Structure formats: C-alpha cells, structure tokens
Recover the amino acids of this structure.
C-alpha cells in the first residue's frame, strides 16, 4: 500500500482514533493522553484523529504536546440512523486522510463503535494492525441515558455491531476485569484480549495542606468536608449522597458536602433538590472549576465519596476520579458496584457501601 515510501523501521507510529480528546477535559480524554504519553516514552510517535462529536470550534487541526490532532467536521442533525451513518462516514474519510499523511504502523481506536468501525475499515484497507480499546459498551450507555430500552431493536443492533468489531479486531483492550469478562465470549478466535486498567500518574498529584482561599471563598472553614468532584450524570448517584447528608450531620455535627462539577441539566435538578429538602446549610455547589484549581479543591476535603448507582454501565466500567483522590492520600468511599470494587480493597485502600 505504501510502495516507494521509506521510513525508520525501529520507530513505531500509532494513529489514535478517538471520540474526543484534549483540550476537552474528561476521563476519556485524560486516559487517552496518559496512554499516548506512555507510548511516547517508549519511543513511539502518536497522532490523533477525533470524531465529529469532539467540540472542534473552527479548528480542524492543532498541535498539543507535540502531537498532530486532526478533527472531523461537525455533522448536520439528522434522524437516528442517518445521523450515526453520517458521523461514521465522515470519520472514515478523516482517518483515511490521516493514514495517507502520517503513514502509521498501527491504528488504535477507542470505543464507542461509532469510532471503532470507521477506524477498522481504514485499517483493513491499508493492511494495518488494528487495536480496539473498550471503555464502555455503547448499547448499555444508551440505556442508562434513556435513549433506548434494554433488549430493544436498537439495543440489539448496537450490540451486534460491537460484536462484529470485536471479532475483526487484532487485539482488544478492556479497562477493567468486569468488562473483560463481559467481552470475552464475543471476541474472534484470533483476537487477543487484554486489561489495561485505569490509572493516574502519581507524580502529578502532590498532597498539600488545605488551601485557605478555597475554604474562605465557599465559607467552609471549620467543616468536616465530604467531597464529590466529577461529572454530573444520572448514574453517578449524587441524589443518594445529597439525601444522606441529614443523617450524616446528626452523627458529625459540622459535616458538610462540597460538590464540584456540573454544566448540564442535572446540575439545575440537583440545586432544586437541595432547595426542596432545605439542605443548603449542609451542601455547597462550587460549579465547574479550572483544571489547574482541581487539586486545590481536593486539598480541603476529608473524604471523597463516589456514590454510583448500579446500572449496566457502572457495573462494568471504572472511573478515573477515585484514583486521583487515592494518589493524593485522601480517603475514598465508593458504592459497591462490581467495577468500583476493582479500584479498592475495602478497609485497606478505601471503603465501600
């Protein structure tokens, strides 16, 4: 496919195909950045293509940390089915152009299937090895978001597409053992399956004394602080944490909950819940904070709580945020979903409820 082209055989070039990436901050983009940094430390070269759902703005290309990031143009709104087809077609074209430009040795795509299938098609066209990294199951995530019903026709169709992708991949990476167990019966006989669990670079998380300006800004002095820092999604179980605060306050009179994050419709619903229960004296919402301020927020917290409810997604996928708190030496309390139990040894490295 690349007749007449020469390159240094000892340098491996990887094309990462992602749903979204930096500078958009999420557990998904942060994990991808960690992986690429580690590959680069091993001497590899990494380039990135993102789907049309990455918030591009007007920029179709940018350089971040010395890497090439190529964006797929946003797609017009269409009916379900046509929309997904248009997204995959546009991404395939972007990936193919990137392959011609960067001449990678391997394509490494991360879920969902809307990203994986276009990347696989290009890999097969150019006879490149293909690695698919499964961070969630699209069909389950769609149920959790209320988009589909379990075992409906769209659910079964999405699951079938994922299974085809598993069978045709050269290797599959799962982010936890629970996900590997789910995927294992669906892979091809020549496909290898590995677990590369979530992690954080501990050198980036340095414990420090409570930052007084944070306590003063939110009037949290002399409080025993429970904290939640992360995404606002229905399955995160924040309603459970809020509902528990009166009982906690009876046991610990100066207990207070600090919730950091937001930016979507659920944030307003949680504010309304706190107001309706007259819990404003026990709970503070800080909203979203700049990334460089997050460790200041961690510094004032006595216990981080991650109250994920049990869903098809949360039983199979692990978050990054508890690992950040653990790297800082902050006690963590997690709900006892199967995936969460992989992150801590109860009573040793954390607590479960």
């Amino acid at each position: 496919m690349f007749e007449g082209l020469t390159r240094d055989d000892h340098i491996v070039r990887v094309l990462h195909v992602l749903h979204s990436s930096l500078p958009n901050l999420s557990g998904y983009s942060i994990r991808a950045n960690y992986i690429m940094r580690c590959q680069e430390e091993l001497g590899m070269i990494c380039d990135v293509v993102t789907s049309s759902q990455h918030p591009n703005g007007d920029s179709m290309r940018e350089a971040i940390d010395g890497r090439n990031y190529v964006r797929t143009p946003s797609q017009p709104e269409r009916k379900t089915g046509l929309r997904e087809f248009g997204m995959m077609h546009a991404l395939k074209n972007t990936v193919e152009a990137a392959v011609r430009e960067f001449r990678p040795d391997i394509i490494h795509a991360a879920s969902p299937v809307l990203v994986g299938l276009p990347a696989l098609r290009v890999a097969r066209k150019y006879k490149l090895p293909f690695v698919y990294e499964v961070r969630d199951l699209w069909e389950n995530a769609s149920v959790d978001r209320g988009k589909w019903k379990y075992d409906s026709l769209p659910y079964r169709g999405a699951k079938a597409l994922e299974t085809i992708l598993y069978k045709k991949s050269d290797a599959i990476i799962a982010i936890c053992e629970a996900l590997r167990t789910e995927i294992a019966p669906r892979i091809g006989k020549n496909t290898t399956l590995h677990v590369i669990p979530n992690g954080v670079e501990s050198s980036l998380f340095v414990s420090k004394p409570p930052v007084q300006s944070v306590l003063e800004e939110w009037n949290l002095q002399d409080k025993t602080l429970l904290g939640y820092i992360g995404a606002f999604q229905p399955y995160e179980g924040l309603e459970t944490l809020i509902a528990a605060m009166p009982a906690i306050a009876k046991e610990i009179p100066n207990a207070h909950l600090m919730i950091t994050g937001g930016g979507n419709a659920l944030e307003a619903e949680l504010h309304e819940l706190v107001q309706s229960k007259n819990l404003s004296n026990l709970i503070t919402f800080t909203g979203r904070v700049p990334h460089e301020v997050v460790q200041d927020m961690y510094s004032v917290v006595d216990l981080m709580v991650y109250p994920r409810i049990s869903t098809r997604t949360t039983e199979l996928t692990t978050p990054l945020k508890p690992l950040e708190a653990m790297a800082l030496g902050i006690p963590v309390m997690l709900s006892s979903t199967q995936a969460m139990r992989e992150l801590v040894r109860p009573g040793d490295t954390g607590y479960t409820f």
In short: The chain has eleven helices and 14 strands. The chain has a mean pLDDT of 92.
